[in-house]
Amino acid sequence: MKKITTLVLISLCFLSCKWTDQQVPEDEVSIKTTVSDSTQVNDKDENGCLASAGYVWSKLNKECIKIFTGIPLNPVTQPDNEDETLSAFVLFSEDLHKAEVFLPNETSSIVLTRAAEGKPWVFEDWQLVPWKGYVLKKGAESKFAGDGQMGKRVMGSDTEQ
After folding, report:
1. In the chain, where does DSSP find H-type helix?
2. Distances (CA, A) of 39 to 17, 22, 35, 98
């Protein structure tokens, strides 16, 4: 009886297996390839920052950061607008000698330098003036202003530091 039961179980195992040498229709192969290719989206910039997660390259920190972790400066023409996509963001070097400004709708940041403490940070016709927080000017015109309060600091990953 044991031999018959064993033989029946082995037979069922072999019969329940699907043979892998069957031909798959060509249209099914292309669908599977398309689905697997679309899941491997490469959304990194030239520095390896994942743009879809909000990371950009910081020239000062030499790493990927989320710019909204810096000091937000709102447009002077719309001071109460809470739309962060219209704001500029400022990050400072550790010695406060340089300030990196991320402008809205710009792909690259600008780095401003100051000559001495109490002086504005300057690059070409851009100035970052420390006055009631910070004011970012282009030429004589004030473009952005903020109270100087920093957002949450996120660098390298999505964990606060």
Report:
1. 2-16, 26-38
2. 30, 27, 7, 40
Number of H helices, E strands in the chain: 2, 10
Quick one: which of 128, 146, 139 has its CA closest to 87?
Answer: 146
Q: What is the pLDDT of residue 105?
A: 85
In the chain, % of residues over pLDDT 90: 33
- Residue 36: which pLDDT band, with cuts at 50, 70 and 90? very low
Give 146's Cβ-side CA count (13 Å radius).
Answer: 23
d(CA 50, CA 142): 32
Question: For residues 110 and 117, is the Cβ–Cβ distance under 8 A?
Answer: no
Please state, in angstroms and rounded to a whole number, the distance separating the CA atoms of residues 103 and 135: 13
Question: With the C-alpha atoms ordered 126, 71, 129, 121, is the resulting torsion angle positive or negative?
Answer: negative
For residue 37 the two structure tokens come to: 């290719």
- Which of 25, 91, 94 has its CA nearest to residue 58? 91
Q: Is the pTM of this model over 0.70?
A: no
Summarised one tens digit per residue, pLDDT across range 61-78 is: 899 998 888 899 989 886
